[in-house]
Design goal:
By secondary structure, the protein is an alpha+beta fold. The chain has five helices and nine strands. The protein has a single domain, classed as DNA ligase/mRNA capping enzyme (D-amino Acid Aminotransferase, Chain A, domain 1, 2-Layer Sandwich).
Length: about 200
Amino acid sequence: MFSLPPPMTARCEAELPVGDDWWFEPHWSGIRCLVHRARGEIEMRDEQGRLIGSYFPEVVAALVHLHVMSFALDGVLTRPGHHRDDLYARLDKEHEAVAREAVRAPAQLRLVDMLMLADGTELTARPFSVRRKSLFAFSATSDASPTIVLSEGTRERQIAEAWLKGEERPAVVAKRWTGSYEGGRDAMVVVRASAGD
């Protein structure tokens, strides 16, 4: 039976890695979230392994409405125009306050990786190229939902460098295109934009 692994983590580097075996995507400001659905039940856990689904009812509802009864995903909970601290503040609120906030300022789940297919096939040992293709196909089932969004990404280092120089000055995550999902290990690289650029 599939169980959620710890999330794959990233080590900080000064520059983006060079080579053909890298995938680059924005490092979103939010709560890292692993999602597992089995027999219709949705399990959402943060980086510390805490169950957080009850604090994001709008995301759970969107996942239920996908009508895919089995999957496991890696993503980031974000809220447009808000910082990650605003999302973490939900974890200290009462249920009624959480429900009101979910309507007033709903969160989004930005998908960054896929760990299990609908038929129960585990993907953690597969290369990211396979997982990304599966994630892209999965995301097509959520096209009508503004709550579940496929994270953008590129294999072009120049594009990723341009992101670091953009007005929002994001960080960028790099993961190996041929790499497996190494839960609990710093198998990715994160590079933050320099404030002096």
